[in-house]
Fold each of these.
Amino acid sequence: MKIAIMGAMPEEIAPILEKIGNYTTTEYAGNKYYEAKYKNVDLIIAYSKIGKVFSTLTATTMIEHFGAQKLLFSGVAGAVSPDLRVGDLIVATKLAQHDLDISAFGHPFGYVPEGSVYVDADKEMIAISKEVAQSMGKKIKEGIIATGDQFVANEARKNWILENFKADALEMEGGSVAVVCNALDVPFFILRAISDAADMDASFSFDAFLETSALESAEFVMQMVDRIIEK
Ligand code: SAH
């Protein structure tokens, strides 16, 4: 089996590469892909760069070029739900694109013809994440993640995303990775650790907590991989 582990920024995959230790690097389509044997599976690891376009390219490449059969995303996000604090983990049940807008034609936000507002994440991996959380003694929240090509550092925009998408967290890659994996029939799991509250202090909070939150998420994702391999 070949499992893809992806992030958006170097900080999000650094702890994973460190844990794997030995890997080969391949340059393809303007990005670096790291391949490794881990236990009895093949891993393909990469960070895409920020945003929906780069994450679409990387997820597609991991599947179509490198043959990944499952995809796990590890990264950080802004909290929308007041229950979520910096460092908390959120598992996406479904994802939407909050900046996709042809509402001028009467369509709902996040919708285009022949698409859907939400894309569901793989139920089996969500179930595994509950087992992992329990074995690690960690609390995880399941919820909706909204994705858009903007760093949200604004209470009004955040509330708009909450009202229109019932989102619990927001970030810039999950929704596009979901579309790719859904179209190519590859089960996917999106995990994020909170780095900020998407409010006026978001950029300061992000800078202060990126590394620790990214590590939190990466450690959990590696436990997920271990558990997937055991099954
Ligand atoms: N500091 C970086 C930019 C980070 S953009 C630089 O200067 O290069 C924010 C990244 O973290 C994105 O990959 C996104 O997925 C996630 N993220 C965390 N908090 C977010 C927020 N409040 N709004 C949008 N994305 C957020």
Amino acid sequence: MKVIALSFGLAASLSLAALAKTSGLPIDQWIARQSPISIKSIEQNINPAGGAPGAVVASPAPSYPDYHFHWVRDGALAFLTVLNIYRAASDPSRQQQLRQNLLDYGYFSASVQTTTNQLGEPKFYLNGQPFTGPWCRPQNDGAALRAITLISFAKTLIINGETSLARANLVPVINNDLNFVKNVWNQPSCDLWEEVSGQHFYTLMVQRRALLDGAAWAEFFGQNASQLTSVAGQITTAILKHWSADKGYLVATLNRTGGLDYKTSNLDAAIILGILHGHTDDGFLSYTDPHVLATAKALLSVFATKFPINQVPGVRGVAIGRYPEDRYAGSNFNGGNPWVLLTAALSRYYYLASSEARKNGHPADAAAYKNQAEDLLLRLKHHAPDDGIWAEQIDRVTGFMTSAPNLTWSHSEVLEAFTARALAGPP
Ligand code: NOJ
Ligand code: NOJ
């Protein structure tokens, strides 16, 4: 008995020691440990205390009241990840709970649509009322992302034989968003970083995907989708104008109408987010497209020299920020930092590029992209907090978590990188 207690105690203290050394774990063990923490964190940020069911708080941290809101963008991205978790779940009671969360998100979305006739409203109080203080608005990516998530969820309901539920509760919300996107796509709006007004690559990419997903969806119901596809075609043309032959990368914003004017490079990790969140499997700007690869490379090289933590010898991979001129550090504007979600997104991008290259019969390229993806994930592991709770940013000097703690979007983007890694197969 004594021996058992002793060895049990030993095992417990050993696992505590292992817990404290997150960054030293082999990558597979780290992923196995981090995944459930990120899933749980997202679920805890859903249905926040005092909020409406289906709302998601961007960050619940008491020290960051500015993040105690439901952003349309963050919410849609979080629920896309929840949907993936739901599809992978096997336990019936767990499935039931995730399905309910997704349905609540659908009801919440329907309700916020009625609080404003302007579907470009970026953020809402957790009770579903629009935030009316000064803000960079409209943000026309949000409704597109919401449509993408809800269409995807509706498809799952239909596969599960719940077509009438999808029709009654999701179709009207989806149609409102698609109509909005169709009407506003060529008007200037505020970018996803809430800083610049103009025409943005990211916004156009997710708008295009929403309309194409919507067209496929409408056809499924026997409706005419030609208007949706024709607008998507116009958006395609607008997106291609973002290639700068001079600079050698895709640029974030064209036709700026206001907001920050110090983003002189126009090089932005939002391009990679646009490639990921706007992906439609139709071959347009696919992961191995030379324009996309060139932009990913430009981001790697600009941030490699930008942040002190990227110069520390012996650490693989590059921590990725928003754009080189960024100044936003969460609680001050003393200089931008690398972001968890962007380092994860670039890693995910390279895993997907690797899978695509392999599928297209280019094994050497596939290996090189996977190596790059792995480096980026190792970089993230290096800065991973021991409790697994990702903040928004990584301090560019100390390498510790900084800015809004427990950011929902950080967790979801990290989980998506893990999924892309699993799909890419063994190294
Ligand atoms: C808060 C926004 O969310 C952030 O992205 C931005 O950099 C600052 N406001 C400054 O506009
Ligand atoms: C600031 C980011 O710039 C913006 O994209 C995000 O929606 C908010 N934080 C909330 O996470």
